[in-house]
UniProtKB/TrEMBL annotation:
<dbReference type="InterPro" id="IPR017911">
    <property type="entry name" value="MacB-like_ATP-bd"/>
</dbReference>
<dbReference type="InterPro" id="IPR003593">
    <property type="entry name" value="AAA+_ATPase"/>
</dbReference>
<dbReference type="InterPro" id="IPR015854">
    <property type="entry name" value="ABC_transpr_LolD-like"/>
</dbReference>
<keyword id="KW-0547">Nucleotide-binding</keyword>
<dbReference type="GO" id="GO:0022857">
    <property type="term" value="F:transmembrane transporter activity"/>
</dbReference>
<dbReference type="GO" id="GO:0098796">
    <property type="term" value="C:membrane protein complex"/>
</dbReference>
<dbReference type="InterPro" id="IPR017871">
    <property type="entry name" value="ABC_transporter-like_CS"/>
</dbReference>
<keyword id="KW-0813">Transport</keyword>
<keyword id="KW-0067">ATP-binding</keyword>
<dbReference type="InterPro" id="IPR027417">
    <property type="entry name" value="P-loop_NTPase"/>
</dbReference>
<dbReference type="GO" id="GO:0016887">
    <property type="term" value="F:ATP hydrolysis activity"/>
</dbReference>
<dbReference type="GO" id="GO:0005886">
    <property type="term" value="C:plasma membrane"/>
</dbReference>
<protein>
    <submittedName>
        <fullName>Putative ABC transport system ATP-binding protein</fullName>
    </submittedName>
</protein>
<dbReference type="Pfam" id="PF00005">
    <property type="entry name" value="ABC_tran"/>
</dbReference>
<feature type="domain" description="ABC transporter">
    <location>
        <begin position="6"/>
        <end position="243"/>
    </location>
</feature>
<dbReference type="GO" id="GO:0005524">
    <property type="term" value="F:ATP binding"/>
</dbReference>
<dbReference type="InterPro" id="IPR003439">
    <property type="entry name" value="ABC_transporter-like_ATP-bd"/>
</dbReference>
């Protein structure tokens, strides 16, 4: 039997009420197999971040169900949901969400501290070194470039080795060399540690690192490609962006 790390069934989600209501996801059904790396693409506003937030238990959908590691999230209370997220999910936010008063190293340590774990000697240094930031441990977010902050957010999401790692445009602020380094790191999580990675990206070169590419348009999955090279992915994206 295939293990699904995350499953969404008929997920509908939106924002606001009444005439201002925006539907961001419409009846999305998709499953992510454990140990795979999926890229999620689609035009701006197509629902990619909303999909990640619902799949990670950060937002509750208006309809449908979400399971993480076989546990249905809907019936869980807020505390139980927080514990499940803490134990099984890592999230790299599109806006980084670092704590401005903490240093890079303290930000990376946060998920461990919240779980009541003391970092092993060298663990934080190694996590920062893995994203090329060994020399920035004592810097606060305000003293780091955008790309450096993004890499601290990636190190923080990876530190607790979550079963599922969601990353919302994790290479959006990075140059191509650093971006390749981060993508190889994400690829390694799936290949070497059987972690499940779901990454939003606008970049076909980044999506080509994934085992599978989901394309979203207007809150629906409109394509589901197996591993493909960047040119094939770019061609599929271009077809989506042509107004019909
Ligand atoms: N907090 C919010 N309040 C109201 N509408 C929202 C909110 N967040 C998102 N939306 C709307 O929901 C839709 C989907 O947004 P979402 O952030 O999921 O898109 P996205 O695909 O991640 O886009 P981008 O590539 O620009 O990050 C958009 O129409 C957006 O305007
Ligand atoms: Mg987004």
């Amino acid at each position: 039997m295939t293990t699904h790390a995350v499953e969404l069934h008929g997920v509908t989600a939106g924002y606001g009420l009444g005439p201002r209501r925006v539907t961001a996801l419409e009846e999305v059904t998709v499953a992510f197999t454990a140990g795979t790396f999926t890229a999620v693409m689609g035009p701006s506003g197509s629902g990619k971040s909303t999909l990640l937030h619902c799949a990670a238990g950060l937002d509750r959908p208006a309809a449908g169900s979400v399971r993480i590691g076989g546990t249905e999230l809907g019936p869980l209370g807020d505390d139980a949901l927080t514990v499940l997220r803490r134990d099984r999910v890592g999230f790299v936010f599109q806006a980084f969400n670092l704590v401005s008063t903490l240093t890079a190293e303290q930000n990376v340590a946060l998920p461990l501290r919240l779980a009541g774990r003391r970092p092993a000697p060298g663990e934080l240094t190694a996590a920062l070194a893995a994203v090329g930031l060994a020399g920035r441990a004592a810097h606060r977010p305000g003293e780091l470039s955008g790309g450096e902050q993004q890499r601290v957010a990636i190190a923080r999401a990876m530190i607790s080795r979550p079963a599922v790692l969601f990353a919302d445009e994790p290479t959006g602020a990075l140059d191509s060399a650093t971006s390749r380094q981060v993508l190889a790191l994400l690829r390694g999580l799936a290949d070497e540690h059987a972690q499940t990675v779901v990454m939003v990206t606008h970049d076909p070169v980044a999506a080509a690192y994934a085992d599978r590419v989901l394309l979203l348009a207007d809150g629906r999955i409109v394509d589901d490609l197996p591993r493909a090279d960047a040119a094939v992915i770019a061609a599929r994206m271009a077809r989506l962006e042509v107004p019909c």
